[in-house]
Prior knowledge:
Blueprint: H1 3-27, E1 31-36, E2 41-46, E3 51-56, H2 66-96
Antiparallel strand pairs: 1-2, 2-3
Helix pairs in contact: 1-2
Amino acid sequence: MSKKMLGDIMRQAQKLQDEMQRMQEEAKKKTVEASAGGGMVTAVANGGGEIVSIKIEKDVVNPDDVEMLQDLILAASNEALRRAQQMVNEEMSKLTMGMQIPGLGGLGNIFGK
């Protein structure tokens, strides 16, 4: 492999890395939402893997059944995080054109899984 070819590959890799970094920063600004209990609890997550808001309808707040509310919050939060991960994976797939690039797999997985 010539030095020119190697240099071209290195420039392409740097360009891809820069683009991935930009995409991850943009993903942090995008949100997805999910609800549980027929919309009684809604969680919003961003592409950075953070829950940014939770909305709880007053009707579901029952001091005698805190476990149900906890379950609804968990369900909505987990679904919102799953959707955020899916959103990031779809964006990453566009960037890499669906290729599985060795050594870059962790960059698309910002949630640490």
